[in-house]
Amino acid sequence: MASLITRRTTSSIVFVVLACFSPFLHLFARVGQEGVLHWRWMASFLDSIGWALFAFFIGISMLIDIKQVNQELKPAHRIKAYLVTCIGLFYIAYTFIAIKDFTNAQYYSLLSGIAIGLTVFAYLTNKYYTPLEEKLKVGFSKMYHWANSIAPSHVPDTEHKKYFEEFDEFVDEIDI
Length: 176
Description:
Structural class: mainly alpha
Helix content: over 70%
Shape: elongated
Distance between the termini: 7 Å
Order of helices and strands: HHHHH
Number of domains: 1
């Protein structure tokens, strides 16, 4: 279990680091470099997408950290995480959709719809992933106990210690 928390923490830290570097993407554009899509300059595009990715990666990091938050604070933390993710997705959509094609009302409605839709998708993915993860843990735990119960009849007495050490190392690697 300790390695599972470490892996989650590591994932969260990776997203925070990505978030911290993303606002500086515009520094990689050459001066006067032509932009992509509807952006005149590459630096403008990279600046826009960088700040959008900042909010998105912070939101993802917060979603990863939810499992480690106090039970009492989880609902508030979850709402904040989804709001930050939604804001990031709004600005990612803003970066890729040209404003010239729509009226302002259509444009902001479309962007809000995309952001909310993708946030709902992230919520549902997170909702169904967690029970699946728990079921897999239970399944691996049962498999572990079953393998330990039948091993004595299939492993020679001289190999018992070595077998159980290797099996425990294997179980530690898959985070049961």
